[in-house]
Design a protein that fits this description.
Layout: E1 2-5, E2 8-12, E3 19-24, H1 32-40, E4 50-55, H2 58-63, H3 85-97, E5 102-109, E6 118-120, E7 134-137, H4 139-142, H5 147-153, E8 157-165, H6 173-188, E9 204-213, E10 219-221, E11 229-231, E12 236-240, E13 243-246, E14 251-254, E15 265-272
Helix pairs in contact: 1-6
């Protein structure tokens, strides 16, 4: 294990194959990924090519906040400015994303009422290697400025794991989920020996429709929504000043959060396609 930059590490087999990046802590209060990576990175024997292990948002980690100045997961653009700490850190990380054939980007939710595990990717041919029931696609067409969208723009393969809630009653569940996914992912990419396990459970394929940004600073949800809560067609979701907004089909809402300013990301809407 070689430290190559602040909290960026490399394991190199010196044999040609895939270069893979495992990235955790893009948001400083999402801890399951780092616990899993800490427990695995020194034990894993990389037998082909190399693996980068990236602990992404150092200042947010130290302060135990989601981010310090700007959401790091919205900073992965070639022409990003250098004004905030997160923008500077994205510039550092992009150097290694450019070298990677595969990216596994690990996240948590902070919900107290839902610990659903979700895989977000455009590469549906690989979902059989992940022990999940929900797969979300089309996110790179809606969110082009986060790490997975950046990798996808380079024609590489990316996978974003939402491995459950850090506030769920079973505090070890999301940590154990992340460990399983990291290990099987590195088998899939041929960076470690052994064939990857195939999970043939039923997968629900979801299509991301949009992310809603507040139009005013007077935004009100109709109710408190749980992460991944089902909402019926024509159900009232929110009021933005005087405008009432309804769903147009049966959907799932994710990350519904009250915002105090206009043009802030407030929630995501998906619908089931298979």
């Amino acid at each position: 294990m070689k430290k190559i930059e602040e909290w960026i590490y490399l394991k190199d087999s010196w044999k040609t194959w895939n270069t893979t990046t495992i990235m955790v802590w893009v948001h400083g209060n999402e801890k399951s990924g780092i616990d899993a990576m800490n427990s695995l990175k020194n034990k894993l024997k990389i037998t082909s090519w190399k693996v980068y292990f990236i602990y992404a948002n150092l200042k947010a980690i130290e302060q135990n906040v989601r981010f310090t100045e700007k959401n790091l997961n919205r900073c992965f653009l070639e022409n990003i400015s250098w004004y905030s700490y997160e923008e500077k850190r994205a510039k550092q990380i992009i150097k290694y994303l450019k070298q990677s054939d595969f990216l596994l980007d690990i996240h948590n939710t902070i919900s107290f009422n839902n610990s659903l595990e979700v895989l977000i990717t455009e590469h549906k041919e690989y979902v059989k290697y992940f022990p999940i029931t929900k797969v979300i696609t089309n996110i790179d067409n809606v969110q082009k400025w986060w790490s997975d969208g950046y990798v996808d723009s380079q024609w590489w393969k990316w996978f974003c794991l939402e491995c459950g809630s850090i506030n769920f009653w079973d505090k070890t569940k999301s940590y154990e989920t992340a460990k399983i996914w990291i290990t099987n992912f590195l088998k899939l990419t041929k960076n470690i020996d052994w064939e990857p396990e195939i999970f043939d459970n039923k997968k629900e394929l979801m299509h991301m429709d949009y992310v809603y940004r507040t139009k005013t600073n007077n935004f009100i949800f109709r109710k408190d929504f749980a992460d991944f809560e089902f909402i019926k067609k024509w159900e009232l979701i929110w009021i933005d000043w005087e405008e009432k907004i309804y769903t147009t089909f049966d959907s799932i809402i994710m990350f519904a959060r009250k915002r105090d300013k206009s043009w802030e990301e407030t929630f995501y809407i998906w619908h089931k396609i298979s």
